[in-house]
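User: I want to check something. If I give you two sequences, will you return the structure for each one separately, not as a complex?

Assistant: Yes, each is folded on its own. Here is the first sequence with its structure:
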Amino acid sequence: MPDRVRTRRQFALFAAPSGRGQSGSLRISFVAETTESSSIAVAYAISRKVGNAVVRNRIRRRLRALVDHLDPQPKPGKYLIRCGNETGNLSYEELEHHLKEALERAGAR
């Protein structure tokens, strides 16, 4: 299970990401791990424009479940997953497809 990106220092790393990818309304920024640890940390940015708190929390739960069960696991590092306005209208399968596609485009797989 991936850790969470929590500190200001961790978020500052996304200013110069190692890779970026987009698919549909999902955008991913990836910062490669500089040490040899195999940890993955994920942050989610879901705007209020996507929907109310119920919708945003549902999207966050779905994304967490998808990231937990990705096969093969993404490269070690930190990930910022941004959700566009249309993300609230996506089904679970569509969200999974866009997540995998964005990870591949970011060079994280």
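And separately, the second sequence with its own structure:
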Amino acid sequence: MFPETQDTILAVSTPAGRSFHAVIRISGPEAIPSIKEIFVPSTNIKPENIQTFTAIKGRIELPAELLTIPVVLYIMKHPHSYTREDVVEIHTVGAKPIVEIILHAILRKKTGIKQGIRLSRPGEFTKRAFLHGRIDLAQAEAIKNIIRSQSDSELDSAILQLSGNTSKQIKYIQNEITSLCAYIETSIDFSDQDIELISRLEMTDKMERIKDAIVHLINKSPVDKIFSEEINTVLYGKPNAGKSSLVNALLGKKRAIVSDRPGTTRDTVTGVLRIGNVNFRLMDVAGVDDAKEHVFPEAGEKAQSALKNAHVILLVFDGSAKINLQLMKMNLNEVANSVIIVINKCDLTPDHSAFELPDELKKYPFVFTSALTGEGLDRLKSQLLDKVLEGQINQSNTLPFFNVHQKNALQRSYERVEQAIASCRDNMSDEFVVLDMRMAADILGEIVGEITTEDILDKIFCEFCIGK
């Protein structure tokens, strides 16, 4: 099915760019022979005699290029390597010309090579690890997530998936389905003898529990799901309410141009604010100003789009001006998600004792802030974090804990279980119930790679970087 796994593949496994260190990884039946003639160990030992998981210092000698390159060679022999093939890693200096010379020297090697040696495709090392049973498909996708992670929470989530946590949950549900199907199929076999091993009520009850378990995976807790991405946080309010200054103060650096002149911001300004393990993408959109909206229609469109896709909206008001007048120009119909009221410029009105929010805003939490003095910024950050930790974030625009491919499989499996429940309640033959439940289990197998196709694998592994 996968003849390309007979080839020996190699690639640079370290990121592109300047570096003190580079790693060239080789995997396949010709991994050790490919470096045998060019590697000279510092001790009198042949590469094929080196024990697995052994590092040995030496040099690569390339007479044609009049070049000697210091390296450390790591040998990992099958089936104990990542790919369950013979693997050789060449660790050397990170100069790009040197790395390319080594690659070309290995690729053009013909003596003693039975199979071909070629450059690897994206994700091919991990694909071989999957095909050879080292990891399942969910763990393979976790490796991709580890490589792409940009925060501690993303990394922790990916490591949890790599540990097999996702696979264990999927396989638990599959085992429950298999057990139920065994009872139903046995009942079918003994149906002519009036022996009922499991009643319709018990069947339905077990299928409902299986369905609930799938739903739990589809709808992971908000913290599990939200931590894996940035929280879109939009600052919305009248021009000159101090939104840009507030963004700069929260980020601790100048990210937006500020001015006393109303309407300075005519485009979306963004920056990432990290609070705890959560990243909030602050978006300062163009101020609400009906009188001038026709002059900059694109800015208004971008503002409305940002509001629509926001997880959290900060309604920013100028604390030195009348709140009711500012509120009249704001369209709260666009504000459907989690909201925090920010009364900015509180340094201009130090006495807050007589302050009262308009009735339309009393249902939201509020905080007094000053971008100039820093007052209230810590409390605002705490309120933002509480929104996430208390599960108040609207998840409609949030990427799930499972990726699209995995969630699609969960959804299809859920639909099959629902169909089986409907068949059971409609007193249809047990054969129909078993058929749907078996299909539900098979679909879950797509997530861990028990049932898959070459197209699915190509789609998953092409998103990896080369050398992984």
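Because they were folded independently, the notes below concern the second chain alone. The chain has three domains: 3-135, 146-220+402-449, 231-389. The radius of gyration is 30 Å.
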